[in-house]
Design goal:
By secondary structure, the chain is an alpha/beta fold. Among the domains are: 32 residues; 125 residues, Glutaredoxin (3-Layer(aba) Sandwich). 32% of the residues lie in helices and 16% in strands. It is built from six helices and seven strands, in the order ααβββαβαβαββα. Strands 2-1-5-4-3-6-7 form a seven-stranded mixed sheet. The longest helix is centred in the N-terminal third of the chain and has 29 residues. The protein starts with 7 loop residues before the first helix and ends in a 17-residue tail after the last helix.
Length: 233
C-alpha cells in the first residue's frame, strides 16, 4: 500500500463547493482552510499514535473500593469486566451537590448515545461520590439507558486523583486504565488543568471530546465565551 502523503494544498485543490454561486474569494479561502483541516487531521493522527505508544504507566497499588449498580462492593480490577481497557469518567455529582454539574451532564448525554458501541471494545464506567442509587435516579430522569454508574466508596480515589477540594467541591476526571492479568496500570489521564488554559479559554483536551463544543466550532458564531449548558431550558 502506498503510504506517501500528498501535500495538503494539493488535496485541497480537489475540493468542490456543494452549491453554485460561491465567490472566488470564498473558494480561495475555503481551500486554504481545507488545507489546514487536512494538516490538523494528520496532526491528530500523530497525536493518537503517540498516545498509544506511551510506555507502561504506574501500577495502581491501592485497593480502591467501589459500589456497583447491583450494590456489590468491587475493586478497580473488577470494573474491567472481560476487557483489558477501562475508560472512566469521574463526574461532579458529589453528595454535597443538589444537582449534577451541567457540563458533566451535557458530556454524559452525548456519551450515552455511543455507550453501547463503546462497550463492545472497552469497559466504560461513570464514577461518582454520590450513592449509586442517586446517580441512577438522575440517569433515569435524563433517559440515559446505556451508561454504567459506580459509586466511589470513601474519598481516597478522588483525593489521589487530585479532584476533591477542601470544601467538598470537585473537578471532573477522564482516566483510562490498562489491565495485564491482575495488574492494573494507568494508561492515560486528562491533565489539562486550569493553569494550562490559553488566555480567554477554558482548559480542554486536544482534540476536544465534548460534542457540544465540536459542533459549535463548525458555526460562524463559534463557541461562546460566556455561555454554558444548563440542566433545563
Amino acid at each position: 500500500m502506498n503510504s506517501t502523503l500528498h501535500a495538503a494544498t494539493e488535496l485541497a485543490a480537489q475540493a468542490k463547493t456543494p452549491f453554485p454561486g460561491a465567490s472566488p474569494a470564498y473558494e480561495d479561502a475555503r481551500r486554504v482552510l481545507l488545507a489546514e483541516e487536512i494538516e490538523f487531521r494528520r496532526h491528530m493522527t500523530r497525536l493518537v499514535e503517540q498516545r498509544r505508544a506511551l510506555p507502561p504507566g504506574p501500577v495502581i497499588r491501592k485497593d480502591y473500593r467501589f459500589k456497583d449498580t447491583r450494590g456489590f462492593d468491587v475493586g478497580l480490577r473488577d470494573l474491567f469486566g472481560a476487557h483489558r481497557t477501562l475508560v472512566t469518567y469521574f463526574w461532579m455529582y458529589g453528595p454535597q451537590r443538589e444537582r449534577p454539574c451541567p457540563m458533566c451532564t451535557n458530556w454524559l448525554g452525548a456519551v450515552n448515545g455511543n455507550a453501547a458501541d463503546i462497550a463492545q471494545r472497552v469497559a466504560l464506567k461513570i464514577l461518582g461520590r454520590s450513592p449509586v442509587e442517586r446517580q441512577l435516579a438522575f440517569a433515569q430522569e435524563r433517559g440515559w439507558r446505556d451508561l454504567d454508574f459506580v459509586q466511589t466508596v470513601g474519598d481516597d480515589y478522588a483525593h489521589d486523583l487530585g479532584v476533591l477540594l477542601p470544601d467538598g467541591s470537585e473537578y471532573p476526571a477522564l482516566v483510562v486504565y490498562q489491565r495485564d492479568g491482575d495488574t492494573v496500570r494507568l494508561f492515560w489521564a486528562s491533565e489539562m488543568a486550569k493553569e494550562m488554559a490559553d488566555p480567554g479559554q477554558d482548559p480542554r483536551d486536544a482534540p476536544d471530546i465534548a460534542a457540544l463544543w465540536s459542533i459549535l466550532d463548525l458555526t460562524p458564531e463559534g463557541r461562546p465565551a460566556d455561555w454554558y449548558p444548563k440542566l433545563r431550558y
